[in-house]
Design brief:
Strand order of the largest sheet: 1-2-3-4-5-6-8-7
Structural class: alpha+beta
Largest sheet: 8 strands, mixed
Order of helices and strands: EEHHEEHEHEHEE
CATH class: Alpha Beta
Radius of gyration: 16 Å
Helix content: 10-25%
Number of domains: 1
CATH architecture: 3-Layer(aba) Sandwich
CATH superfamily: Gcn5-related N-acetyltransferase (GNAT)
Number of helices: 5
Length: 203
Amino acid sequence: MAVSAVTGAGDLVVRRLDASTWDAFADLVERNNGIYGGCWCAPNHVEYVRGVSDPRTLKEGLVRAGRAHAALVLDGEGRALGWCQYGESETLHLKHERAYNQDPPPAARWRVGCVFVDKAHRGRGVARRALEGALEQIAAAGGGLVEAIPETTAGRVAQGRFLFSATVELFESYGFSRGRQVGKHAWIVSRFVEPAKRTRGGS
């Protein structure tokens, strides 16, 4: 692989969300009451049907099938602290989708749908490491244009439940640029991620 599936920064380690890390992800969600009323980070997926899909069952099925992607941040003991969900654009919905579709930007290959940090571990750089890890994983998968719809927080106090797609300021610190505003505080942001360079022999 061009980029290792496991990278570290300080005492934080990033791994892909897959069958091998599902239990750590599930433990994190259960510690936080299912996330935002029991969503399990599932409603962004196009397979989700409100009132029909069971979020946990759907999420686990997609993860084990390799159709749900996230950079999962763990501490040195393997305890998950947060994640950044991403996926190819046709597989994930974005917030403010109606406003987005009124004047869509150039088509992106990837979307970042959700960033979440355990309530007990906020302020430790977990969200930054999660986004960084997601961008590394996207680069390893061939790179391309990445988009998201986060919220601005400058000059206001924003409740955490409205920041499930993270902040514009966080994305801008990783080279994303603002496009069009699609909500009172929400902006389309995007950045091109270069493909990861392969080492000799393609490994």
